[in-house]
Amino acid sequence: MKKAEVYILSGFLGSGKTTLLKRLLEDEQKSGRKTAVMMNELGKVSIDSDAVSGEDVSLKELLGGCICCSIQDKLEAQLQGLLLDEKPDVIYIETTGAAHPVEVIDAILSPLFADKLLIKGILTTVDGTRWMDRKLLSPQLQQLILEQVRHADFIVINNMNELEANEQAKITFEIQSINPYARCLLTNYSQVPLDQLRRLTVSFEKVEQKSQQIKLNLSTFVYQFKTAISHTEFENFLKSLPDSIYRIKGYIKFDYSDFPFLFQYSYGMPIYLKEDMNMPLNLVFIGEDISWREIETQLGNLEL
Ligand SMILES: Nc1nc2c(ncn2[C@@H]2O[C@H](COP(=O)(O)OP(=O)(O)OP(=O)(O)O)[C@@H](O)[C@H]2O)c(=O)[nH]1
Question: Are residues 147 and 69 in the same domain?
Answer without folding.
Answer: yes
